[in-house]
């Protein structure tokens, strides 16, 4: 089997498993990891290896960019204090605790154990975002989980470079050197990301070609990552900053058709990359274990102890921090619900795996770096453990906590927004009608359309208030039946050669957009 065939089969497997996970409403990352392990254990499957350059350069940038685009500046300003504490203090504490435990229970030396701690210190934005999409968390909680995972990278990268430098060179870096590394990595990456975002915004404001806009959107995260890495800054931080800045300007940079196309293309790319990368994590574990040999027979217990240490340290940090925040905001008695969800959402994923794979093979004197294989096995095992255990149980924890938003809440919020938009449109239309800015027939047509949208929004609000009222449901069913009839007539006109394919596609797109706008 050639490498190309193996890659294509991996993509097909990952896509099929991820599609099944969506259908069965279970966490796709967790199921993908299990499927990867299952395939990796098959006797005729050869050892699977992927270089850290492939993960860092090909996979991570678009996934990080897509996660960062979802960050809201308004929500981020509300949670920057706890996010800062978690992104700095918790990362340092986790690295120190894992290093101490690993040095005590594994054959790893002190410096190599700290390398393991630095690798696993930060939560993974790709895994956290993939698991969090399906949970109806309150905006503040969702923002804390996602922002922490995106902004703790610079801290973990500095720790990792310090730890690897110590293990390879046999010496320790000073505190001043570590601080300088952090400024260069974090600050330099943020500066590069901001510059790239500014340049891309200037280009996109002057572009109205959907294909070119899509290409620019796909290239942006790679440009930010490569430029930052070329100046020895954090490419991950650059991608995150570029995504946050451009995500907040998306409505002003492009028009509606371009936004729809870019969103569709990016959704496809993210789905494929996420599916493949989580399957890779599972595939690599069996081959890494085989390389470890007989001397590493205790790795399951060691990985379990390391994972338990990470979860314990996270709880020790998150619960007091959450209690302090609740007291500061004056929200009644302190509750366990939010810190429990925050603690359980700290999964590891792609970033730790890429960091572990990038550990040098030899020290500066040319001798093999001791216990590198064990670090790789423990890292991958902990990643698998968190993705499977926390991934499958995060939704029950959220439901048990009672903080998840009810579907009715989201529906009422959306219906209220649609009601306000329709009223604003009617008000503006009446003002334009008084100025005689358009023929009366045009005004009447627009008025009927806006009134229909207003009636639909009111029906949704009435249904939310009284679930027994099925007006909105009946409206959606009837309108979809009409759209189906219109689509059939459109196809008949095309089959009879009365309209061109361009006209058919354009009108069908309009009908599809209306169908999607009806909701569920």
TrEMBL record:
<keyword id="KW-0812">Transmembrane</keyword>
<keyword id="KW-0050">Antiport</keyword>
<dbReference type="InterPro" id="IPR004705">
    <property type="entry name" value="Cation/H_exchanger_CPA1_bac"/>
</dbReference>
<dbReference type="GO" id="GO:0005886">
    <property type="term" value="C:plasma membrane"/>
</dbReference>
<dbReference type="InterPro" id="IPR018422">
    <property type="entry name" value="Cation/H_exchanger_CPA1"/>
</dbReference>
<keyword id="KW-1133">Transmembrane helix</keyword>
<feature type="transmembrane region" description="Helical">
    <location>
        <begin position="233"/>
        <end position="250"/>
    </location>
</feature>
<keyword id="KW-0813">Transport</keyword>
<feature type="transmembrane region" description="Helical">
    <location>
        <begin position="210"/>
        <end position="227"/>
    </location>
</feature>
<keyword id="KW-1003">Cell membrane</keyword>
<feature type="transmembrane region" description="Helical">
    <location>
        <begin position="83"/>
        <end position="105"/>
    </location>
</feature>
<feature type="transmembrane region" description="Helical">
    <location>
        <begin position="157"/>
        <end position="176"/>
    </location>
</feature>
<feature type="transmembrane region" description="Helical">
    <location>
        <begin position="341"/>
        <end position="362"/>
    </location>
</feature>
<dbReference type="GO" id="GO:0015385">
    <property type="term" value="F:sodium:proton antiporter activity"/>
</dbReference>
<feature type="transmembrane region" description="Helical">
    <location>
        <begin position="28"/>
        <end position="45"/>
    </location>
</feature>
<dbReference type="InterPro" id="IPR006153">
    <property type="entry name" value="Cation/H_exchanger_TM"/>
</dbReference>
<dbReference type="Pfam" id="PF00999">
    <property type="entry name" value="Na_H_Exchanger"/>
</dbReference>
<feature type="transmembrane region" description="Helical">
    <location>
        <begin position="262"/>
        <end position="281"/>
    </location>
</feature>
<keyword id="KW-0406">Ion transport</keyword>
<feature type="transmembrane region" description="Helical">
    <location>
        <begin position="301"/>
        <end position="320"/>
    </location>
</feature>
<feature type="domain" description="Cation/H+ exchanger transmembrane">
    <location>
        <begin position="13"/>
        <end position="399"/>
    </location>
</feature>
<dbReference type="GO" id="GO:0015386">
    <property type="term" value="F:potassium:proton antiporter activity"/>
</dbReference>
<dbReference type="GO" id="GO:0051453">
    <property type="term" value="P:regulation of intracellular pH"/>
</dbReference>
<keyword id="KW-0472">Membrane</keyword>
<feature type="transmembrane region" description="Helical">
    <location>
        <begin position="182"/>
        <end position="203"/>
    </location>
</feature>
<dbReference type="GO" id="GO:0098719">
    <property type="term" value="P:sodium ion import across plasma membrane"/>
</dbReference>
<protein>
    <submittedName>
        <fullName>Na+/H+ antiporter</fullName>
    </submittedName>
</protein>
<comment type="similarity">
    <text>Belongs to the monovalent cation:proton antiporter 1 (CPA1) transporter (TC 2.A.36) family.</text>
</comment>
<feature type="transmembrane region" description="Helical">
    <location>
        <begin position="374"/>
        <end position="395"/>
    </location>
</feature>
<keyword id="KW-0739">Sodium transport</keyword>
<comment type="function">
    <text>Na(+)/H(+) antiporter that extrudes sodium in exchange for external protons.</text>
</comment>
<feature type="transmembrane region" description="Helical">
    <location>
        <begin position="111"/>
        <end position="136"/>
    </location>
</feature>
<keyword id="KW-0915">Sodium</keyword>
């Amino acid at each position: 089997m050639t490498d190309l065939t193996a890659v294509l089969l991996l993509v097909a497997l990952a896509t099929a498993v991820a599609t099944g996970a969506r259908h069965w409403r279970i966490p796709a990352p967790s199921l993908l990891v299990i499927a990867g392990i299952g395939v990796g254990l098959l006797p005729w499957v050869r050892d699977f290896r992927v270089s850290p350059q492939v993960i860092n350069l090909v996979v991570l940038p678009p996934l990080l960019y897509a996660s960062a685009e979802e960050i809201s500046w308004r929500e981020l300003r509300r949670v920057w204090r706890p996010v800062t504490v978690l992104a700095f203090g918790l990362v340092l504490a986790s690295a120190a605790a894992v290093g101490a435990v690993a040095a005590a229970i594994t054959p790893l030396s002190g410096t190599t154990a700290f390398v393991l701690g630095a690798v696993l210190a930060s939560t993974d934005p790709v895994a956290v975002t993939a698991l969090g999409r399906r949970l109806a968390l309150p905006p503040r909680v969702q923002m804390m989980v996602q922002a922490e995972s995106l902004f703790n990278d610079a801290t973990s990268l500095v720790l990792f470079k310090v730890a690897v430098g110590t293990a390879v060179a046999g010496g320790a870096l000073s505190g001043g050197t570590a601080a300088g590394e952090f400024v260069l990595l974090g600050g330099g990456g943020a500066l590069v990301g901001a510059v790239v975002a500014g340049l891309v915004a200037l280009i996109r404001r002057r572009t109205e070609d959907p294909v070119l806009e899509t290409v620019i959107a796909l290239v942006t995260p790679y440009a930010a990552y490569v430029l930052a890495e070329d100046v020895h800054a954090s490419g991950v931080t650059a991608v995150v900053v570029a995504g946050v800045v451009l995500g907040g300007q998306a409505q002003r940079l492009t028009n509606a058709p371009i936004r729809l196309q870019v969103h569709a293309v990016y959704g496809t790319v993210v789905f494929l990359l996420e599916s493949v990368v989580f399957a890779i994590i599972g595939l690599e574990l069996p081959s890494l274990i085989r390389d470890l040999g007989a001397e590493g027979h205790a790795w399951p217990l060691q990985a379990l102890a390391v994972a338990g240490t990470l979860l314990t340290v996270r709880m020790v940090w998150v619960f007091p921090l959450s209690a302090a925040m609740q007291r500061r905001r004056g929200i009644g008695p302190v509750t366990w619900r939010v810190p429990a969800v925050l603690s359980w959402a700290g999964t590891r994923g792609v970033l730790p795996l890429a960091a572990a794979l990038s550990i040098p093979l030899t020290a500066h004197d040319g001798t093999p770096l001791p216990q590198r294989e064990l670090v790789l096995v423990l890292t991958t095992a902990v990643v698998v453990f968190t993705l499977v255990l926390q991934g499958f149980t995060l939704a029950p924890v959220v439901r048990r906590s009672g903080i998840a938003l009810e579907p009715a809440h989201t529906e009422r919020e959306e219906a209220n927004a649609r009601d306000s938009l329709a009223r604003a449109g009617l008000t503006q239309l009446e003002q334009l009608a008084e100025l005689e800015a358009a023929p009366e027939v045009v005004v009447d047509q627009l008025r009927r359309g806006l009134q229909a949208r207003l009636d639909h929004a009111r029906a949704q609000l009435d249904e939310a208030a009284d679930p027994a009222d099925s007006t909105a449901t009946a409206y959606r069913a009837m309108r979809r039946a009409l759209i189906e009839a219109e689509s059939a007539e459109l196809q008949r006109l095309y089959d009879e050669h009365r309209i061109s394919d361009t006209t058919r596609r354009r009108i069908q797109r309009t009908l599809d957009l209306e169908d999607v706008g009806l909701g569920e």
